Structures are given as C-alpha cells and as structure tokens.
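Q: Could you fold this chain for me?
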Amino acid sequence: MTTQQEPEVLTELKMNAAVQRTINEAYVPNDNPIIMATIGSDGKPAMSYRGSVIAFSETQLGVWARNAEGGTAKALEAHPDVQLVYRESGGPGQRSKGVMTFRGKARVDNDEAVRAKVYETMPQRERDSDPEKKGVAIIVDLESLTGFIPGYRLQMSK
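A: Sure. Below is the predicted structure, expressed as structure tokens.
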C-alpha cells in the first residue's frame, strides 16, 4: 500500500522554480493558455486567452499584448486590477493536474529591457504572431496566488 505524500503548502508570495516552470510551459508544450480578466474601458469585465504569459520574477508575471493600442493595454490605465487563471486537465476521468489563480495590479512597461525579457521568454509561436515586436509588455505585480500544482498547495498573498 502506497501512501500519498502531503503537498507542501506555500504561503509566502514568492513563486518557486516549479511554479515558474508551470507558468512558462503552460502554452508550449502543454497547450493550456492562461485566461486573463481585466476591466474594460466601459467598466465591464473582459476575458481573453493569453499564450504569452511568463513568470517575470518571483512576484511578477509578464504578458505580451500584440496590439499596443488595443483594449487590454488601454484598460489597464484606468483599471489595473487583473486576475489570471491557469488550469491543466488530467484528461477524461482524471483529476486536474493543476489550477492557479493569480490576482494583482497590471501596468504597461515600456522599458526596453523589460520588453525584451517578456518578448524573448514567451513561446516562439507567440513571437511569430508579432515578429516586428510592435506590442507592449504588461507586468503584473502579484497580490495573491492560490491553487495547486503537483507537490504544492498555493495559498500565497501579500
């Protein structure tokens, strides 16, 4: 009889290597784009799939928005609160392999080093969608991260 080891509970808002790897590999190779929710300029919620989400640092996410003048970049000026959701299915009849909910404040960052890091870290197929690098880097300063991935239960907050 095998006993299942209890997952480590993480409470400090500091993404470890396993969490960062899960984020960076969400879209490629696992084909699980992360959903990002913002508040639009009309004050209503807007959600979109994002294949460009990366772990920018231990406490930040990076997102590439291909349209610098688009709704997401503009909406953040007035409404910086965002939520992102990741889920990896275990397949038919199996339990989920991971679920993470991120909350934070997002902003467009035009610093060239930040833009380069987000652009170069996101999956190649996302870079192929903006080969001229016309988009903008969005940085999400995390306020909380909850959920689980193999080996860890996430209950992180500021």
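A (continued): The longest strand covers residues 136-149.
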